[in-house]
Amino acid sequence: MVLCTGPTWFPMVGNFLDLKRKCQEKKYLHEAVAAMAREHDTSVLGLRLGSELTVVVFGYQMVKEVCGREEFDGRPDTFFIRLRGMGGRGGITFTDGRIWQEHRSFAVRRLRQVGLGRAAMDDIIMDELQELVRLFGESAAAGRAVSIGRSFAPSVLNVLWVLTTGSSFLSREDPRLHSLLKAIKARSIAFNMAGGILNYFPWMRFLAPEWTGYNLILRLNSDLKDIFLATIAEHQARYSPDKTDDLIDAFLHEMESRQGDSASSFTVDQLVMICMDFFIAGSQTASTTLDYVFLMMLLYPDVQRRAQAQLDAVVGTARLPKIADRKKLPYVEAVLMEVQRLHQATPIAGPRRVTNATKLQGYDIPKARRMLFLPQDTTVLISLWSVHRDEQHWGDPTVFRPERHLTDSGELLADDWLLPFGLGKRRCLGEALARSCMFIFFAGVLQNFEILPVPDKELPEEDPTPGLLLSPQPYMVMLKSRLSRYVTESSHQVVFVLAVTSYIKRFGKPDNFPPGRFNQNALYDQPVLMNWSRGHNPANLRYVHNVANMLPN
Fold first, then answer.
1. 243 near 165, Cβ under 8 Å?
2. 244 forms bridges with which residues in the sheet?
C-alpha cells in the first residue's frame, strides 16, 4: 500500500503535536496544513490525527477531482460529528448515502416552492434591508460608532426564519431572535475551542468534561434544540394537509404521508437537525462575509467610492437596489467576489469520508483502517484556501483587487477557480439565498452610507480571528448618510434654476414686444441646463428637470 506523503506518525497522537506546533507558528489551521504540504512538496498530504487517518488535498485540480468523485461524497461518522448532531447523525450537512440524497432533494424542492429564488423571497430580503438602513440612519444621525459587520446576523436569520417557519420575528427585540442568535454564536465558539481535543481524543470528555468544553456543548445543544422544538410544536398544533407554505409545514406533510413506514427518515429529530443546518450554516457564512466586506470598504476607500459611483449611476437615490440590478452592477458584484476569494469564511471545506477504497494521485486511500480493534474511516479535508491563493492562477493572490473579476470592458468575468460555496454534489444548499442576501445588503447599505473610520482610532487589522470559521477581528465604523450629499447637490441645482429664471424675467423679452430675433439667454434652454447637470446623480438630474418644467414659458 502506497500511503500519502506527510510527516512521521507518533504513537497514540499521530501528527497532532506536529500540527499544533505548526498552527502556533502560522496562527491558522488552513495555513498550517498548507505549510506542511509545501515542506513535503505534495498536493495530497497524509496525516494521522489521534487514531484518525486524514488526507488533505490542495490546488484546483485535486480539489476538483475529489469534489467530483462519488467515493469522496461521504461524511465522517465520528464522536464529534455525533456531538454536533445532538447524539445522532441527522440533518443534511453531515449525513451521506440514502438519507442525505433523500433529504437534500426534499429541501431543494421545497425551498423553491416556498419562495427561494423567487420575487417573494426578494421582497423579504428588501424588508430587512429597509430595517438595516433605518437602524444605520439613526446611528449616523446620532454620530455613534457602529459594529456594522455584526449587525447583519439578525437580518440573515430573519430571512431564514421566514423560509423555515412562514413568519418573521416581530422586531430585533424579539426574545426568540435573541435566544437563537445567542445560542448559535455561543455554540460556534464552543466548538472552535473544543474541536481539536474532542474530535481526536473523545475519551477526554470522561476525564475533563468541563475543561474540554463537552458539558458546555451539551447545554448549548439543548438550548438550540428547545427553540426549534417549540416552533415545530406550534406548527403541529395548527397543521393542515392543505397548508405547506413553509419548510416545517412541508416536512410535517411528508411525515404524515409516510405514517406506517418504519424505515422513514422523516422524523421530528431529523427536522430539528435540518433546521440547525439551515440556521447555522446559512446565517454564519453570509453574515461573516458581509462583516468582511464592510471591513474592506473601510480599509480600501477607493474601492468603496468606485462601487458607490456605479450604484449612483445605475440605481440612483429614488429607490433601493434590487436583485434585478445585479447584472447592471458588475463592479459591486466583483467586490463581493474578491472578498470571498481573499477572505473566505470556510477555508477548509466540510470533512469528507471515503466510502470505498480508492487511489488519489497514485496513493492508496483506504476506506477504513482498524485502530484498537475498531474500523476507522479515512477523512478527507479540502483546502479551498489553496485554490483562492494560487499564485500561478491569480498572479497577486494576497492583494485585494476586485478588477481581477472584470473584463477590460468592465463586464463580470466568471472564474472556475472561485469556489466560495464549494463544488460538486456537496455544494452549499443555500448558495442562491446567501448570494441574494449579500448582494442586497451590501449594495443597499453602500448606496445610503459612507463607511468611515472612527476618529482618533487606528484602522483595524485585516487578519481574521483564528477558528474553523474565519471572521474579522471586532471593529467599529462611523456611518455618514450619503443622502445629505444628494440634498445639498439638489439644493444648489434648484437655486441655480431659480436664479436663471429671475434673470430672464428681469432682462428677457418684454411682453408684446415687436417681432424679431431676441437674444434669449442660453442658460434658460433646458437642454443646456441638462447638459450642465450631467455627471451629477441621476435622481437629482430628474429633479432639476421637473423644476425647469414648472417654470413659466
1. no
2. none
Residue 497 CA to residue 74 CA, distance in Å, equals 69
Q: 261 Cβ partners below 8 Å, 6+ apart?
A: none
Which triple of cell numbers denotes residue 190? 464552543
* Local confidence pLDDT in tens for the 553 residues of the chain: 566 888 888 887 888 889 989 999 999 999 999 999 999 999 999 999 877 889 999 999 999 999 999 999 999 888 888 888 888 889 999 999 999 999 999 998 888 876 665 667 888 899 999 999 999 999 999 999 999 998 999 999 999 998 899 887 767 888 888 889 888 888 888 887 776 678 778 888 888 889 888 899 999 999 999 999 999 999 999 999 888 888 999 999 999 999 888 889 999 999 999 999 988 887 788 999 999 999 999 999 999 999 999 999 999 999 999 999 999 999 999 999 999 999 999 999 989 999 999 999 999 998 866 554 445 789 999 999 999 999 999 999 999 999 999 999 999 999 999 999 999 999 988 888 899 999 999 999 999 999 999 999 999 999 999 887 899 999 999 999 997 644 444 444 544 545 555 555 555 556 555 655 444 444 434 443 344 343 444 444 443 344 344 444 4
Distance CA 217, CA 221 (A): 6
Residue 428 known to bind ligand = yes
Q: Which triple of cell numbers denotes residue 134?
A: 433605518
Q: Name 53's Cβ contacts closer than 8 Å, sequence gap at least 6.
A: 46, 47, 366, 369, 376, 377, 378, 379
Phi and psi angles of residue 360, each rounded to the nearest 5 degrees, phi first:
-145, 115
CA dihedral of residues 34, 35, 39, 40 (deg, nearest 10)? -20
**Contact (Cβ atoms closer than 8 angstroms) between residue 354 and residue 366:** yes
The alpha-helical segments, DSSP class H, found in 315-427 are: 330-342, 384-388, 391-394
CB atoms within 10 A of CB 109: 10
- Judged by DSSP in three states, 477 sits in strand
Tracing cell 441574494 back to the chain, one arrives at 436
Give me the residues paired with residue 479 across strands: 451
How far is 521 from 500, CA to CA, in rounded Å?
A: 9
